[in-house]
Amino acid sequence: MTTTPLTVAVLGPGGVGGLIGGLLARDGHRVICLAGERTAAALARDGLHVRSGQFGEFTARVEAATELREPVDAAFVTVKETALAAALDRMPPQALGTGIVVPLLNGLDHMALLREHYPAGRVVAGTIRVEATRTAPGRIEHTSPFATIELAAPVEEFAEQLRRTGLDVTLREDETAMLWSKLSFLAPFALLTTRHADGIGAVRTEHRGELLAVLDEIAAVTKAVGAPADARTLLASFDRIPGAMKSSMQRDVEAGRPTELDAIGGAVLRAAAAHSVPTPTITRLVRELS
User: Fold this and answer.
1) Per-residue pLDDT tens for 219-237?
2) Considering 157, 173, 189, which residue would you say is the last residue of a domain?
C-alpha cells in the first residue's frame, strides 16, 4: 500500500471540504483549495483552522487559488448543489490531468452533470455523513461525532490514504444503493428539521407521526429505484443520532442562503413520479418549504 503524499484539490472549502482538506493537509498531503478571491486569500494567509470533538483543534497550511492550474491525484467537489455549475469553471477538465473527481454533494443530479463535464470514468460517486460548518473563511466547526465517507469505486489505495487521516471510509460496489442510502436518510432529516425549525430530537418526539409517514414514503421510493430500504431501520438511525443535530438545509435557511430543496426533496419527488410511488407527506413538505 502506497504512503506517497497525494496532491488533492478541494473545490469549495466550506464545512465539508474544509474538514477534509484540513485533515489531509495535517497528515502531510498537499492540498489546493479552490475558492473565490477573498476566501482563497484568507486560506493562503492563515490556513484551515478546524475545531472538532473527534479530530481535535488544529490549523493546517494549505495552498489556495481561484482556479486549478496543474494536475492533481484527486479533486473533491464539495460546493453546494446550487453553486455547482458556476464552480466548475474553477476546475477546468484539461487542468485535472488523470486525477479522479470525488463529489460529496447532496442529491443525485450532480453525477450526470459532472460526468458530462469531466471524463465519466474518473468521476467517483461519493457520499459523506457529517455535520460540519464554515463559520468564516478557513474556519471549520465539526460538531457531529462522526465523519463517514462512502465511495462507489475500486479505489482502495485512495481510501486507505483517507482512513489514515481519521476519516471513516467504506467502498461500495452499488452506486445507486449508496446514493439512495444517503438520500433516504437526508431527505427526511433535511425536510423535517427545516420545516419545524428545530433539531432532530424535537422532530422525532414532537412530530414523530410525520417522521414515520415520511420514512414510509422514502423507503417506498428507494425500493422502487432498485435500492434496499427499510423504514424501521431508518427510524432506528434517527433515534440514535444526537438530538441537537441540524441539517445543512436548516442552517442555510437560518443564514438566509439558497437551499438545496430541489437537489434533496425535488430528487425524491422526481423519482417517485417516474415510478408512480405516492408521496403525499414529502410532497406537502417540499411545497411548504418552496
Assistant:
1) 999 999 999 999 999 999 9
2) 173
Q: Which of 173, 200, 228 is the last residue of a domain?
A: 173
CA distances from 179 to 101, 119, 171, 185 (A): 16, 20, 12, 10
User: Using one digit for the tens of pLDDT, what is the confidence trace for 235-289?
Assistant: 999 999 889 888 989 999 999 999 999 999 999 999 999 999 999 999 999 999 9
pLDDT in tens, 65-115: 999 999 999 999 999 999 999 999 999 999 999 999 999 999 999 999 999
Q: Evaluate whether 137 touches 152 at the Cβ level (below 8 Å).
A: no
Please, are residues 190 and 264 in contact by the beta-carbon 8 Å criterion? yes
Looking at the domain assignment, is residue 272 inside a domain? yes
CA distances for 156 relative to 28, 96, 163, 196, angstroms: 19, 21, 10, 41
Distances (CA, A) of 169 to 53, 155, 213: 19, 11, 31
Residue 1 is assigned to a structural domain of this protein:
no
pLDDT at 253: 95
Q: Which amino acid is at 103?
A: P
The answer to whether 126 and 1 are in contact (CB under 8 A) is no
List 151's β-bridge partners, or say none: 126, 171
Of 42, 63, 51, 46, the closest CA to residue 19 belongs to 51
